[in-house]
Each structure stands twice: as C-alpha cells, then as structure tokens.
Amino acid sequence: MKILRDEHGVTLMELLAAIIIFTIFASIIWGFFFQSLKFNDAEVTKQQLQQEANLIIASIQEAHIKGQSYIIQTNDSNTVLTVKDLVFEHPQIKYEILNSIQTPVISKTLEIKLKLSSADNPAITYEIQTTFSRIK
C-alpha cells in the first residue's frame, strides 16, 4: 500500500482554528476601538461645556465690573441663560444656577455657582463656582 505524503493546503481543523483566533483578536480590537470612540465623545462634550461656562463667566464679569445692575436668569426648562442683554442658548446644553441670586444684581460682591450639563447625556456635567467683586 502506497501512502501519499503530498500535504499541499490546509486541513479543515487548521482553517477553523485560524478563523477562531482571528475572531477573538478582531473582537478585542473592535471593543477597544468603540470604547475609545465613546470616551472621546464624552471628553469632547465636557470640553464644550467648559468653554461655554468660561464664556458665560467672562460675560458676567464684564457686566459686573461695569458697575451697572443686571439680571442673571434661566428659563423654566434650563435651556436658555440670560446675562444682562446676552442670551446663551445651545440645543445640547442645559444651564442651572445652583445658588440663589438676588436680581437685579447691584451688590459689589457676587458669588455664583453655575452647572452646565449635556442634554444628550445628563451624567456629563461641568460645575463652576466663582466670586466677582468690584470697587465702585
């Protein structure tokens, strides 16, 4: 009896083992990829909240330093924040003033706690607390 030793190609078991190993590695890489995308989206949203808060604080500071009376308020649904004549409105941001502010603001010192949160993901928030003072 003659035994053939011609082993060109792969067996079915080798092919299945290669497919299984490839699938395991691909699923691990796929998971890391989508986890990093999700993390990146959250960080971009947080950065946008921080930039919006900085703009609001700069506007309040400008109004406070000028020594005029002004009003800081939000609407009922916390989607619009008004500082003097400036209106801050962004469809993806909710604004909330955490402390009570006497309006119109006429005092020399103002302490404000402001919270901005994402409308899409309320778990992503940015809070800022600051005090404004003027000499006049």
From TrEMBL:
<keyword id="KW-0812">Transmembrane</keyword>
<protein>
    <submittedName>
        <fullName>Type II secretion system protein J</fullName>
    </submittedName>
</protein>
<dbReference type="InterPro" id="IPR045584">
    <property type="entry name" value="Pilin-like"/>
</dbReference>
<feature type="transmembrane region" description="Helical">
    <location>
        <begin position="12"/>
        <end position="33"/>
    </location>
</feature>
<dbReference type="InterPro" id="IPR012902">
    <property type="entry name" value="N_methyl_site"/>
</dbReference>
<dbReference type="Pfam" id="PF07963">
    <property type="entry name" value="N_methyl"/>
</dbReference>
<keyword id="KW-0472">Membrane</keyword>
<keyword id="KW-0178">Competence</keyword>
<keyword id="KW-1133">Transmembrane helix</keyword>
